[in-house]
Specification:
The complex is a heterotrimer of chains A (291), B (319) and C (544). Chain A is mainly α. Helices cover 66% and strands 3% of the residues of chain A. The longest helix of chain A has 32 residues. Chain B contains 16 helices and two strands. Chain B has a two-stranded antiparallel sheet. The chains are: A mainly alpha (291), B mainly alpha (319), C alpha+beta (544).
Chain lengths: 291, 319, 544
């Protein structure tokens, strides 16, 4: 089928727009890559723009020499994989139940969940709870408390409601119960939202460091982001004690190392999205089922 | 277009029938309750289990004495917040900055998602998507460093360009006229690509037959977007907008904290930065909790109000 | 729509979310505990059961930084401790997170006996008073008398005063007390020479030098791209100006009539602000001072190293040739040279460097999770110069060389941190000859600073009291008003005369209450010192 002239112009303009936008959006990463490859004592001159100032891999060497980085990777990969699986699955089951309007108490459950999005008991009671469950320094502490979130559930509810009702009805006529409907009809059709929520959950776990602050006392249970935060922490201190400014200086890790560690830590999670993208077109199936 | 709307706004298969016995419904939906259960248990255990902690907003809390041993002070923490000399300025800044960001980050990701969806080459579209969401992964700590470097009035790139065009250098981050705009622009820059993901997922679920029908009717691309895509993803948009109200009193602590300075306090000091400065050296858990409770209460009120309005207007709200 | 925050956040704990988002980097919103320590079970070591053969287990909280578990430094320390204590010692490090989460972690650790470290490192005094109240912190007087000679010898009587409790006990030991003064006026020597200017000694000369640095093209590139002065936006960077007039805008100052007054209200402040406003307008002061550098030392270090600014008020440590900033500057500006000069004299001939109050900015608590005698013995061993050098710099010949008093590490910094050489930093950090990193020249500079910072030390009032409820209540609002006004004036946004209204603003924001409280504390503090004097003579002097 041919395109109208207007459509051709629109397409060309759209492509041009995205080329420019991509250049703009990729720049900070480019800047970070170039910075991380620069010689640490030359970045101060401020000339960093398109190419590295000098060339050095010492920042990366320093990052990989850190003894805790491997254990950090391990902890983060395990928590991310398990947490994403648990979080996505149980968000989906809960959301599906709520999304069925015939469910008695649906509004109550929705409000119950919404309430947790706004109000929380705070960090210390949660810590005490986790401690009393004997989960300190275990993967459970890093995974479970954050696995379910109101936001994700509501987004899924919105998507499930959008599924045509005929699907459920047809399956029911064939004698399927709700479990069968959910697993064999709803889930396969919900790949876009599962991929989306799964991505959000995964990125959340990947970037989490605060769970380590709360629930890890052993350094080998520190998440990757915690290790990196520690690695690049600026140990110079300006502390105000009763109004008196005191400042103490220690050696500061160079800028280049900061950038290198951030790149190293974010590349694996950046690579996830492109793999998920194919699920974003599968939604087209709905039409074919219906038709 | 009526049928399209109807399809987009699906109603449940068997609406609740009055008079049916509760027991019968429970038995009928036993598998639904089974699906609900695990998630609900996690919520009850990890969210409601510690919920008793909110009471410290009404205490002068001491972690070593615990909630039982700490002194009750009624609304003193709230009074302290509301009576602070700059409270109205701070509240105003919070609301203004947050509304700017809410409106910008409501419209722009949708537009961008629609445009992305129109890219005809699948490879290019995927590549563009993956590039556009990159800035989300740069933490504010690093991103603010880059922003400061680029915007500084001495040798920042932006000002070098302005000067080479014959202009005078502008202190973007030290000037009340520009500061809020910089907050919105940098926030959009960082988060817009990430924001499109969910809309792309919604667009992927739109029934292709609808486009086909529209094409046969001779609708242009623009009209298709307006009359097919947008109505189809409207339920998702509505839910996201309602949910985003939860953040109406969060103007972006990290970003502002890393970028502001004494010259722009007038327009940049928000509730969170204020609470931080007051609380930081005093470990004042109670004050911070009181401020959080205030913000949540406002957000809750807004969400319930808007949800009711949405439902009254015949659309699907959160429930 | 701040959706993105939710996107990422929704998948984390709602706990984290509300704390991290509303509390600012976490750590601030928190809530109740059902009786801290309620389920304390076993402490790491029961006092009394210490037979010679049972290893003494001591857990120590260590400040963040890239620190290494099971390191060489830890093993070496254990060996040294075993030698001095006569029984096996097992050091169990507890690694703390960095500043933004530090207090959160410490509070959680301290809330129950089974997680409480034997020795806690901390910088927060507010929580400390709660630990004393709750009986978590142990009185160390007897233990110091018995095992703490090295510590008592190292810290001065005045320093210890700030750590002494007026009940006649000592619950905390300073971890790091900075040098008497560690900052200095720094100038570009090569620029002075090039412009044919002598080293300035008075404020007028200094101002002229700064102007020449900004306008006289000292880097000879034909462009006006240099500045006279730069730094961070703490007032310390403006010390050459304020201190020349004998004012410190952040502290209470002794007045000629014996009373005390908040420094920001001093009439001389107006004169200084007017002077700075002029310099800012003329382009002598780097505009980045007002914004870019406010939170980030590395940014200022970059400006320092880039060599486009003629003067700073910054660290003495920059004159150690091994300092990374100094090395960076040398690489970028091979012909450049910074010098440290005497503090600038004001119109009345007054001059001073920035004094340090000599109150430890961080300190160590021995908790009820271990026995005080052994813990102090551990700390005392770490404080002996030889052990301190060993765990801080490594073994001479193996990890570093000394030649003519110059310390040269033979290992890379990364190897050093792998060995755990940074692990025990700020655990009785010695600033004397044992700090071999300082060159003899820098050591001498620090010694000179004791005298050159004395004039301001005599003027500034340092409060011992941790409980300052009025100050806590009102100071943030006052500081905000001060920052807005002062930086507004400096940048020309506000007129100099606006300063005249500051006293009124101060009163309105609670200044009166602060003043009253300060006066009372100042009076009681002097009485307290007399009391301390007696205690010190009886409990410390004989044991030194």
């Amino acid at each position: 089928m041919g395109l109208t002239r207007g459509e051709k112009v629109f397409n060309a303009a759209n492509i041009a727009f995205f080329v420019v936008l991509m250049l703009v959006m990729i720049y900070p990463f480019w800047y970070m890559i170039m910075g991380s490859l620069s010689e640490s004592d030359r970045t101060a001159a401020g000339g960093l723009f398109l190419v590295p100032q000098g060339f050095s891999l010492s920042a990366y060497k320093a990052v990989f020499q850190n003894v805790s980085i491997l254990s950090g990777f391990k902890v983060t990969v395990i928590t991310t994989v398990c947490g994403t699986a648990i979080g996505t699955f149980f968000s989906a089951t809960t959301a599906y139940a709520i999304s069925r309007r015939r469910l008695r108490g649906g509004t109550f459950f929705s409000m119950l969940i919404l309430f947790t999005m706004l109000f929380s008991g705070g960090m210390i009671p949660t810590y005490l709870l986790v401690k009393s469950l004997h989960m300190i320094d275990t993967y459970w502490a890093l995974i479970l408390p954050g696995s379910i979130g109101a936001w994700n559930i509501f987004v899924m509810v919105g998507f499930f409601r959008n599924l045509p009702d005929e699907l459920e009805e047809a399956a029911k006529i064939d004698g399927a119960n709700d479990l069968v409907v959910f697993f064999s009809v709803v889930l396969p059709l919900s790949k876009p939202v599962l991929a989306t929520v799964g991505l959000f959950i995964a990125v959340g776990y990947w970037n989490d460091f605060f769970s380590s602050v709360l629930y890890a006392t052993e350094k080998n249970m520190w998440q990757l982001q915690m290790v990196l935060k520690d690695l690049i922490s600026n140990t110079s201190a300006a502390i105000s004690q009763a109004g008196i400014s005191v400042a103490v200086q220690q050696d500061i890790n160079p800028f280049t190392m900061k950038l290198a560690s951030i790149l190293v830590s974010s590349l694996p999670i950046l690579a996830v999205y492109p793999f998920l993208q194919k699920h974003f077109v599968k939604g087209a199936m709905i039409g074919s089922v219906k038709g | 277009m009526a049928d399209i709307k109807a399809a987009a706004r699906s109603t449940g298969p068997s609406p609740r029938t009055a008079g049916r016995s509760l027991m019968k419904d429970l038995v009928r939906d036993r598998y639904l309750y089974l699906l609900l259960l695990p998630g609900l248990l996690l919520v009850l255990l990890f969210k409601y289990g510690p919920m008793y902690g909110v009471v410290i907003a009404f205490q002068d809390y001491n972690i070593y004495k615990g909630i039982h041993g700490s002194q009750w002070v009624g609304f003193a923490q709230f009074e302290r917040l509301f009576r602070s000399p700059d409270f109205y300025e701070i509240l105003g800044n919070t609301v203004i900055i947050s509304l700017y960001k809410l409106s910008a980050s409501f419209v722009i990701p949708i537009v961008l998602a629609l445009l992305l969806n129109e890219l005809r080459s699948v490879v290019f579209r995927r590549f563009a998507q993956s590039v556009v969401y990159l800035p989300h992964f740069i933490s504010w700590v690093i991103f603010s460093g880059i922003i400061i470097t680029f915007l500084n009035p001495v040798d920042g790139m932006v000002n070098t360009v302005i000067q080479s065009l014959g202009g005078k250098p502008i202190d973007f981050l030290g000037d009340v006229r520009y500061f809020r705009s910089m907050l919105v622009v940098t926030d959009i820059y960082k988060e817009v690509g990430w924001g499109t993901i969910i809309y792309l997922a919604a667009i992927a679920g739109v029934n292709p037959d609808l486009y086909e029908a529209a094409r046969i009717d001779g609708a242009s691309k623009l009209r298709q977007m307006w009359h097919v895509t947008l109505p189809a993803i409207r339920p998702v948009i509505v839910i996201l907008v309602i949910l985003s109200l939860a953040n109406v009193l969060e103007a972006g602590f990290q970003q502002i904290f890393l970028l502001y300075n004494a010259l722009v306090y007038d327009v940049a000091d928000i509730i969170d930065t204020y609470v931080y400065r007051v609380g930081i050296y005093q470990a004042n858990y109670s004050f911070a909790t009181a401020a959080g409770l205030f913000k949540s209460a406002v957000a809750m009120t807004l969400i319930l109000t808007v949800n009711t309005i949405v439902k009254k207007s015949g659309q699907q709200g959160l429930w | 729509m701040k959706k993105t925050k939710w996107l990422a956040g929704a998948s984390l704990a709602a706990v984290m979310l509300t704390t991290a988002c509303s509390g600012g980097g976490g750590g601030k919103e928190a809530s109740g505990t059902k009786g801290a320590g309620g389920e304390a079970s076993q402490s790491s070591d029961a006092p009394g059961s210490a037979e010679a053969k049972t290893p003494y287990k001591i857990s120590m909280a260590l400040m963040a930084g890239s620190k290494t578990p099971n390191s060489w430094a830890e093993k070496t320390l254990e060996e040294e401790l075993t030698k001095t204590m006569g029984r096996p010692v097992d050091v169990q490090p507890v690694f703390l997170p960095d500043w933004s989460e530090l207090n959160t972690k410490i509070n959680l650790l301290m809330s129950a006996k089974d997680t409480r470290p034997g020795i806690l490192w901390t910088g927060d005094t507010k929580e400390y008073t709660k630990w004393v109240d709750a009986g978590i912190a142990q009185d160390l007087t007897a233990a110091l008398q018995k095992n703490g000679k090295e510590i008592l010898d190292y810290y001065s009587k005045d320093t210890l005063f700030y750590h002494w409790d007026k009940s006649g006990k000592i619950f905390r030991i300073p971890g790091d007390v900075p040098e008497a003064s560690y900052m200095t006026t720094i100038l570009r020597k090569d620029w002075l020479d090039k412009l044919g200017l002598p080293v300035p000694t008075t404020l007028d000369e200094y101002v002229n030098v700064l102007k020449a640095f900004a306008n006289g093209d000292p880097d000879g590139n034909g462009k006006k791209d240099t500045y006279g002065l730069s730094g961070d936006n703490y007032y310390r960077s403006l010390a050459p100006f304020f201190y020349a007039y004998g004012v410190d805008v952040e502290n209470f100052m002794r007045q000629p009539d014996g009373s005390i007054k908040f420094g920001a209200l001093d009439p001389n402040v107006k004169t200084v602000l007017a002077l700075l406003q002029g310099l800012y307008k003329e382009g002598v002061i780097d505009p980045r001072m007002t914004t870019s550098a406010n939170n980030d030392d590395t940014k200022v270090n970059d400006i320092y190293a880039s060599g486009k600014v003629g003067s700073f008020y910054r660290w003495v440590d920059y004159f150690n040739p091994g300092n990374s900033v100094a090395m960076s500057f040398k690489k970028l500006n091979p012909a450049g040279e910074y010098i440290s000069v005497d503090p600038i004299k004001g119109p009345d001939g007054f001059s001073s460097d920035m004094p340090d109050p000599r109150i430890g900015w961080c300190y160590l608590i021995v908790t009820d999770a271990t026995d005080a005698d052994s813990a102090v013995q551990v700390l005392n061993t770490m404080a002996t110069p030889d052990v301190f050098k060993l765990i801080t710099f490594g073994r001479e010949g193996e990890h570093y060389n000394m030649k003519d008093g110059i310390f040269t590490p033979t290992i890379q910094p990364e190897e050093g941190s792998k060995l755990g050489l940074g692990n025990f930093g700020w655990y009785v950090q010695r600033k004397d000859a044992a700090n071999i990193k300082n060159t003899p020249e820098v050591t001498k500079m620090f010694e000179q600073k004791i005298a050159s910072s004395q004039p301001m030390r005599d003027k500034i009032v340092y409060f011992k009291a941790i409980d300052r409820p009025e100050w806590d209540k009102y100071s943030e609002d006052i500081k905000k008003a001060r920052e807005e006004l002062f930086w507004g004036i400096i940048t020309g946004k506000t007129s100099v005369d606006a300063f005249d209204g500051f006293a009124k603003t101060y009163d309105k924001l609670g200044g009166k209450q602060i003043d009253e409280e300060a006066a009372k504390l100042y009076a009681t503090q002097q009485q307290e010192y007399e009391q301390y004097d007696k205690w010190y003579e009886a409990n410390i002097t004989p044991y030194k």
